[in-house]
Specification:
four-stranded antiparallel β-sheet, 51% helix, 15% strand
C-alpha cells in the first residue's frame, strides 16, 4: 500500500512514519512519498525518518521517497495525507500580529487568524483536490491541513466523501476523560459533536452507562486535567459538557486576547523561530547517525510543553501537567482510518465528514466533527442528539463564516471576504473586519487583490 504525504517536510511527519513502523499487519503501508515545495525541509525530514527507521530496527520498514513534483507524488497512491501550510509559519505569525493590532484573536484556526489562513489555503486545497481527482482518482484523502473542517469541505467539492478530515483534539480529550473515569479509552463511547475546534463531549458511555455526570459532580477530578483547569469546574457544570480546548477562545475571549497581547512572542513566531533552528540543525552536512532524530525529539518536547500557554496564563493554571502532554495522536487516528478502509476493519472514530442528515441545523454538505463508523466504503457519521441552543448559535455562526470564506476564495471578491470577518463571533465590528482584511492583504501577497 502506498501513502503520499503532502507537506512532507512538515514537522509532524515523523509521528506518522513512526506509527507506520509499528504496524506489522498484512497489507500495511510499504512506500511513503514525501511531497514538499521546500527542498531543504524535505532533506531534513528524510534524515529524521532514516534515523527513526534505524532506531526501530524493524524488517521491511516503509521505503521513503521525496519529491517536489506533485503529480509524481500522487501517481499510484492509495492514500494521500494532506498536511500543508500555505504561507508557512511566517504567515501564521503575520496572521497573529495583524489581528492583535486590532484587539482581536489571531489564532491559527479561530477568529480572524483562522479566516486569513483559510483565505490563503482554500484555493490551494481546491487545486490539490482537482489534481488528485485527475491523477489518483481511487485514492482516499486524509486531511489534517488547517482549518481542518473548512479545508475538508473545500476538497469535498472535488472529491466527495473520499476526503476525510482528522484532528487529535477530540481524541485526546476523550482519552483524558475516560482515564479519569477509570476506563480504557478504547472501551468508552464518546458522545462528541460540533465543528472542527468547536465541539463538546456531552457524554461518555462505559458499558452502556453515561459516566460523565459522575465526573461533572467531582470538582477535584474535573480540575485535574487540561480542559478542567482551563474552563473551571463551575463553568463545565453549567454547560453539562466538556468543551474542546479551543472553545476557551470563545468563552474567555477577552482574557485570552489580553494574554496574547502581553506575551513576549506569539505562538506562530515562537514556532517559526524554533523550527528554523531545528531544520538548520537537521539539515547540516556531516550530521552523525541519530542526530537529526534527537534534534526533532528535543524540539517536539518543547513544542508540546508550551502548547496553549497563553490560555493557561489567562486561566491562571500554570504549566501543563505531564499527563496532559500526550496528544490525541492524530497519526494513530490516521493509521486506524487507513486500516479500516484498506482492510475493511470496522472502527469508530471522531472525524470531519459531510453532515448528511446528522445535524438538522446544517445542510447535507456541511462538514462536521462527529463519531463515525469507518469501513471499506469510507466514513459514515453516526446519529447524535441535536445540539443545545447555545451550541447551535456558535456552530451555525461559524459555519456561516466558513461558507463566506469558500465564496471569497472562489470569487476573489472583497465584499465576500469582509463578510467572512464581520460575521465571526470574535470580530465585533464591520469596520474592524475591513481593517483586518486590509492588514492581511498587505501582509500576504496572495491576498493583495482583496485590498
Amino acid at each position: 500500500m502506498r501513502l503520499t504525504i503532502l507537506g512532507g517536510g512538515g514537522f509532524r511527519v515523523p509521528l506518522v512514519y513512526g506509527a507506520l513502523l509499528g504496524d506489522h499487519a498484512e497489507g500495511r503501508v510499504s512506500h511513503v512519498t514525501l511531497y514538499d515545495e521546500d527542498p531543504a525541509r524535505l532533506a531534513a525530514m528524510a534524515r529524521v525518518l532514516e534515523d527513526l527507521a534505524a532506531a526501530a530496527a524493524v524488517p521491511d520498514a516503509p521505503a521513503v521517497m521525496a519529491t517536489r513534483d506533485l503529480d509524481e507524488a500522487l501517481r499510484g497512491a492509495d492514500f494521500v495525507f494532506s498536511a500543508i501550510r500555505v504561507g508557512g509559519l511566517e504567515g501564521r505569525a503575520a496572521d497573529e500580529r495583524v489581528a492583535l493590532a486590532e484587539g482581536v484573536l489571531g489564532q491559527e484556526t479561530v477568529g480572524a487568524g483562522g479566516i486569513a489562513y483559510g483565505l490563503r489555503t482554500v484555493p490551494v486545497a481546491r487545486g490539490i483536490a482537482r489534481r488528485i481527482a485527475r491523477v489518483a482518482p481511487e485514492a482516499w484523502v486524509i486531511n489534517f491541513t488547517n482549518p481542518a473542517g473548512l479545508v475538508t469541505e473545500a476538497m469535498a467539492e472535488e472529491l466527495g466523501d473520499r476526503v476525510i478530515g482528522i484532528c487529535d483534539s477530540p481524541v485526546g480529550l476523550g482519552r483524558r476523560i475516560a482515564r479519569l473515569l477509570g476506563a480504557r479509552p478504547e472501551d468508552a463511547w464518546i458522545d462528541y459533536v460540533g465543528l472542527n475546534h468547536l465541539g463538546w463531549v456531552r457524554g461518555l458511555r462505559i458499558g452502556g452507562r453515561d459516566e460523565l455526570p459522575r465526573l461533572l459532580a467531582d470538582t477535584d477530578a474535573l480540575e485535574s486535567f487540561e480542559e478542567g483547569r482551563l474552563f473551571g469546574a463551575e463553568w463545565l457544570r453549567s454547560l453539562g459538557a466538556i468543551p474542546n480546548e479551543y472553545l476557551h477562545y470563545y468563552y474567555f475571549n477577552r482574557d485570552t486576547v489580553r494574554a496574547y497581547q502581553e506575551a513576549a512572542q506569539t505562538r506562530g513566531a515562537f514556532l517559526r523561530d524554533q523550527q528554523r533552528g531545528f531544520y538548520a540543525e537537521a539539515g547540516r552536512a556531516g550530521l552523525p547517525a541519530g542526530a537529526a532524530l534527537a534534534a526533532w525529539d528535543r524540539t517536539r518536547a518543547e513544542r508540546e510543553a508550551t502548547y496553549m500557554a497563553e490560555n493557561r496564563e489567562a486561566a491562571g493554571v500554570g504549566e501543563r501537567d505531564e499527563s496532559d502532554l500526550e496528544s490525541g495522536g492524530y497519526e494513530k487516528v490516521a493509521l486506524a482510518l487507513m486500516r479500516a478502509i484498506a482492510r475493511d476493519e470496522r472502527a469508530t472514530l471522531i472525524l470531519n465528514v459531510r453532515n448528511g442528515s446528522t445535524l438538522s441545523v446544517l445542510d447535507a454538505g456541511a462538514v462536521i466533527e462527529v463519531p463515525c463508523l469507518v469501513d471499506a466504503n469510507g466514513a459514515h457519521p453516526l446519529g447524535v442528539e441535536q445540539l443545545p441552543l447555545h451550541a447551535v448559535g456558535l456552530v451555525t455562526a461559524v459555519k456561516a463564516v466558513e461558507r463566506e470564506i469558500l465564496a471569497a476564495a472562489a470569487s476573489g471578491a472583497r465584499a465576500d471576504a469582509v463578510k467572512a470577518f464581520a460575521l465571526h463571533p470574535l470580530v465585533d465590528s464591520v469596520a474592524v473586519a475591513r481593517r483586518l482584511l486590509d492588514g492581511y492583504a498587505t501582509a500576504h501577497p496572495g491576498l493583495a487583490h482583496l485590498r
